[in-house]
Design goal:
This protein has helices at 2-28, 73-86, and strands at 44-45, 52-53, 59-63, 66-70, 91-93. The chain has 94 residues and is α+β, with helices and mostly antiparallel strands. The longest helix has 27 residues, at 2-28.
């Protein structure tokens, strides 16, 4: 009798575990139902310090047709100082 009860309990636990697994798989495959996740953003590299930053809120400079993005004003100023010494012109955007 105890053997039957233990097997029944084991069967119930295994069935519940499988049900939760299947339910989580189904829940994860629903399109557009992802809560708390932001869309991916392509990051660009700061040429001065190497930090990766999102291009939208970052400071930027266009020099010779190429746009460079910066993590801070310190990196922007350092880039401007080094490129003014080299004689290139640039335009700053925010």
């Amino acid at each position: 009798m105890i053997r039957f009860l233990l097997l029944a309990l084991l069967f119930i636990l295994v069935a519940r575990a499988i049900w939760k697994l299947v339910d989580s798989i189904i829940e994860g495959t629903r399109p557009g139902d992802r809560r708390g996740t932001a869309p991916p953003v392509k990051l660009v590299r700061d040429p001065v310090c190497g930090t990766y930053v999102p291009p939208r809120p970052a400071l930027s400079v266009t020099a010779a047709g190429t746009t460079h993005y910066f993590c801070s004003e310190r990196c922007l100023n350092e880039y401007g100082t080094s490129h003014k010494a080299q004689g290139s012109s640039h335009k700053s955007q925010m």
